[in-house]
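Support request, please re-run this one:
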Amino acid sequence: MNIPPGAAIFAWAGRVVVRPTMRCGKVTIPNFITLLRFFLVPAIVYAILVDEMAWALAGFLIAGISDGIDGFIARQFNQRSELGAYLDPIADKLLLVSVFVVLGLMGELPLWLVIAAVSRDLLIVGAVVLSSIVGTPVEMKPLFVSKANTAMQIVLAAVVLFELAIGDGFGALRTWLVWLSGGLTAASAAAYLVAWIRHMNGYGESDNPAL
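Re-run finished. Output below.
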């Protein structure tokens, strides 16, 4: 499948999506909501660093809710835009990666998990860019394992922030979530890598693989 001229290629929560060119030059309501998430990222990070975990948790939950709201408005009221196609995934990934990195540096998440999660995203983006450079662009679509991995990372971050906010833990729950997140991160990275290698070797040229 050829990528149409002007198509937007971007990564969000471990998935790389190609969208047709949308109308530009107009800042929509979903765009403003997405911009709110950009401003929430430094506020959440700051709240974590100064040990205001209740505020950090509240900001994280608001960001998650706003993500669903702007997507709903864009779909239901035909307010999709090219600007939003870029801003939305960047805001989502910036939030999740920032929280993971800070929690990792604080020792609340294992560094191996943080490194694995960030490396996976870089691997996906690098594969798409390289494919385009060598003239074999690939349309990458989210796999079930990728969606599960993203959901697990969000739940893990929320649970850690909640534990820190109330000053108590859920026993072994965090440990289980860490290992599940690590396993899904590795599984989704492997799935994307295998599909990309098959594409680059010429398999399924008539129909891009669902990466």
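The chain has one domain: 8-200. The beta strands are 8-12, 15-19.
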